[in-house]
Amino acid sequence: GDSGVRVRTSSDPTGNATSELELSILDCLIAGNGGDGVSVAVGASARGTQRVHVALVGSTVESNEGSGVSVEYPGVWEEFFGNQIKFNGIGLSTDRGMGELLVGNDFELNNVHLRNLGSSPLLANGNYWGVATTAALEAGETSESLDVFAGPIEITDWATSSVLEPVEPPPSPIVWDRP
After folding, report:
1. Which one-letter DSSP state was computed for residue 17?
2. How many whole angstroms separate alpha carbon 170 and alpha carbon 8?
3. For residue 23, what is the enclosing H or E element?
4. Residue 155 has pLDDT above 70, yes or no
């Protein structure tokens, strides 16, 4: 299937980075793709010198058949917070830890919330994981929605409800009638 936002970088035959990329996805809806919602990968030979900076902030990533967010080289992320990631095959799939960046997001009703494909720990504190996963975390149990495919997922602090600010409906119009 096709991805919604796809970022791929590569290098020339000598291994030199061929581009510099800055991408900000702010307050967007990325939904209904046959593949991943957001897919970011940096070519293996370009990782040492490639300059890629990606921000995903305040966005909704939902109803994508693959991963809501797929990251093959997470060192590229500048910001990753305030997002609602729901109804995806996999909420976030990554091959490396994301440091302290994966915080302040809502993961709800994905088949799998997180999948760690790498060997480095994936730190994921300060996020909301939906009712069932939060109950499992509070009981000290493992959850199938946190998929330790190859490497560990570390969550020691989580939210018990949405970390996103609720959207207030617009005020009702005031109608003035004459008596």
Report:
1. B
2. 40
3. strand 20-26
4. yes
Q: What phi and psi values does residue 143 have, to the nearest 5 degrees? A: -130, 135
Cβ contact 42:11 at 8 Å: no
Sheet containing 77-81: which strands, arranged edge to edge? 20-26, 51-57, 77-81
DSSP 16: -
Run of H or E residues at 131: helix 130-138
pLDDT 10s digits, 47-61: 455 566 778 999 999
Q: Return d(Cα 68, Cα 88) in angstroms, integer.
A: 6
d(CA 169, CA 159): 24
- Per DSSP, the three-state class of 136 is helix
